[in-house]
Amino acid sequence: MMPFDLILRGGRVIDPSQKLDAVTDVAFSGGKVAAVARGLKADPGTDVRDVSQFIVTPGLIDLHTHVYWGGTSLGIDAEEFCRLSGVTTAVDTGSAGPGNFAGFRKHVIEPSQVRILAYLHVSHAGIFGFSHRIMVGESEELRLMNPIEAAEVADANRDLIVGIKVRVGLHSSGTSGAVPLDIALEVANEVGMPLMAHIDHPPPSYEDVLARLRPGDVLTHAFRPFPNTPATAQGTVKKAVLEARERGVLFDIGHGKGSFAFKTARAMLANGFHPDTISSDIHQLCIDGPAYDQVTTMSKFLCMGMELPDVIAASTVNAAMALRRPELGSLKPGSVGDATLISVRQGQFDYEDVVGEHLIGDRKIVSEGVVIGGRWWHPN
Known about the structure:
Layout: E1 6-15, E2 20-29, E3 32-37, E4 47-50, E5 55-58, E6 60-65, H1 78-85, E7 87-93, H2 101-109, E8 115-121, E9 129-130, E10 135-136, H3 147-156, E11 161-168, H4 170-173, H5 179-191, E12 195-199, H6 206-212, E13 218-219, H7 239-246, E14 250-251, H8 262-270, H9 294-303, H10 308-313, H11 317-323, E15 339-352, E16 358-372, E17 375-376
Helix pairs in contact: 3-5
């Protein structure tokens, strides 16, 4: 048995992939999780950390981020963000398309200490016109749709590309409606990958988008405010939403600047409809509010009544399953050696959604440390 490189000693380990919630140790060796048990023996060179004050979870996965820093105007720095937010895997959702993915890979993904995976945009240059002053929906112009090269680039970069991304809605596809979605689905079918669909204002409608999605596809911005909300005016869940979940469509939060409302979330949670995945949709226009980061987005659901293990599952094992990367999002021995340390602070905390509603919550999830590849990575 290889010596342990790192032992996290005595934390409360919550790992939904194993239905585990217990005070125990977690050991890492050779970049992977080596053991989860009480009283693990340290070797002479083992880095032992007393984490008895914290909760240890599998490394958090943020399924919706924009981290093509310097390559797009909406990109943020992945390493800086992940340190503060407890994220070990940032999934970029369409910042780059087939025309500029090579630069994203070489200049951002490969040098990054944080794992970055990507949904490739079907539009040639990805989300290129998104800033405080310029807002051009890349799916408005069908001449930018590049399905042939998107399939080629996705196939050639399967180590990093986990699916195909498209944005549809009034702000992103204009009068093109759902046509870009149909093109993206062709690419996803061709390469055998899932698709992530963004939705904003109609057209197309929430129902039109869901009708096209396949099992394993992800609808992000799933708890949007009106219009294109999944809840009815009477506070029930729309029939099309229930039917889509039944056939395996996944519902992701993707908070962002304009895509999450407390009113919608309250209605969905009251009906027992939890998100499959909780993600921040972090980018330059929401990192200073209202999204801020992954743990703040998770905190909002904790304060609205989701149990802590369910919130953690939506940011670990559920996200790993959506990515089809079962080696992530778990502390099972043999899994990738990533872990996140969090605490849940008590008090009064002001949370804001994208329409300006405030929620005073009594708890806040705080990132306290990060392990990446079996090594302590957090600067503190």
